[in-house]
Design a protein that fits this description.
By secondary structure, this protein is α/β, with parallel strands linked by helices. It has 13 helices and twelve strands. A hairpin with a 3-residue loop joins strand 8 (277-283) and strand 9.
Length: 361
């Protein structure tokens, strides 16, 4: 499965700079009426590299994350030309990466005239909530017509949507709306924007890359109240790091900043944690490859990520833990040590599994 993350933020937040540093692209700054930019990140995984060193395959294939740089927004931007595309692009994303400007720079003008991360966050939140509010109000009107002729299910649906509308009017996103599992069916066809998980990125100046700054402290309580992931990243510094030619130079630059790893590693971990994703591996002389699945995925469904025929004709899975393989050095050694298991259709694939499917179609 391809994970898709959309970058949103107020125009001038540094969103496109961060996008370019991650995708190693040369995209120009997106404006409200600008185009959406697409990129792809290879997911760094030390286990994949270690497996490849042992197996020495012809090819090594990491799993990837698709990223979307959605044009920067200003207050009321979703209502002007290009705004509908902004909302449509977010609708296609699995997760939102909301970049908030937390740096002062007179050479980068702010659309609102001043740096105020709490206000900027509220602007984006309000644009998305307003769109969802319109969607839910239209559905409530449709259900009211059905409920008027005695349909009890439609009546209950209207009640749930009315509660959600009140939630929106209080400035709260759908993801913080408490709802019974039995009532979720009333929202499933709404495709709400604010139900999507959000990772907040506080974009700071280089000197604040390690500890943040007063702007970060100002917006942090609002982010923590949503129980969302928050990262502090210096996008401009990350862009300089990604432009360096050698891994040695990049490591030296990171050390000079007091950082242990580039922003891409932190963002991907946050995305996997937020979306509850796992990685499994296939290992052989032709290819060592990483694959992404949701937590709780059973073996046949995981097999379908490799090829749909494997799910249709699934017989069994042969499973090793990558940690055992790396410690013991081979499949044969795992078998000898009792670390090689045959699993059926009800097996839940775990993060780090080495997975081989037996199937027949």
């Amino acid at each position: 499965m391809a994970l898709n993350c959309g970058f949103v933020g107020i125009a001038g937040s540094g969103k496109t700079t961060l996008f370019n540093s991650l995708s190693k692209g040369q995209t120009g700054a997106s404006q409200v009426t600008g185009r959406t930019n697409l990129g792809q990140i290879e997911v760094p995984d030390h286990r994949l590299d270690a497996l490849a060193r042992i197996v020495k395959p012809a090819k090594v294939v990491p799993t990837t994350v698709e990223i979307v740089d959605i044009p920067g927004l200003i207050k009321g931007g979703s209502k002007i030309k290009g705004g509908n595309q902004f909302l449509a692009d977010i609708r296609q994303c699995d997760a939102i990466i909301h970049v908030i400007r937390c740096f002062d720079d007179d050479t980068v003008p702010h659309a609102e005239g001043s740096v105020n991360p709490s206000r900027d966050k509220e602007i984006i939140d309000l644009e998305l909530i307003t769109s969802d509010l319109e969607t839910v109000e239209k559905k409530r009107e449709r259900l009211a017509k059905v409920a008027s002729v005695g349909d009890k299910d439609a009546k209950r649906g209207g009640e749930v949507l009315s509660e959600l509308i009140e939630h929106f009017e209080n400035g709260e996103p759908a993801r913080t709306f408490g709802i019974k599992d039995t009532d979720r069916k009333y929202l499933d066809d709404c495709f709400l924007l604010t139900v999507k998980p959000v990772i907040y990125v506080c974009n700071v100046d280089e000197s604040s890359a390690v500890s943040g700054n007063d702007h970060v402290k100002a917006v942090e309580p609002a982010i923590r109240a949503e129980n969302c992931e928050m990262l502090v990243i210096a996008a401009l510094a990350e862009a300089e790091i990604s432009s360096l030619d050698t891994e040695e130079d990049r490591k030296e630059f990171l050390q000079d900043l007091g950082l242990e790893e580039p922003a891409v590693n932190k963002l991907i971990r946050a995305a996997y944690n937020t979306l509850k994703l796992n990685t499994f591996f296939t290992v052989g002389p032709k290819e060592v490859r990483a694959w992404t699945i949701r937590e709780g995925t059973h073996a046949p469904r995981a097999a379908s990520v490799i090829h749909s025929d494997m799910e249709r004709g699934f017989i069994r899975a042969e499973v090793m833990k990558s940690a055992d393989f790396l410690e013991l050095g081979s499949e044969h050694a795992c078998k000898q040590a009792g670390k090689f298991n045959i699993e059926g259709k009800n097996y839940t694939v775990q993060d780090g599994d080495i997975f081989h499917v037996r199937f027949n179609v």
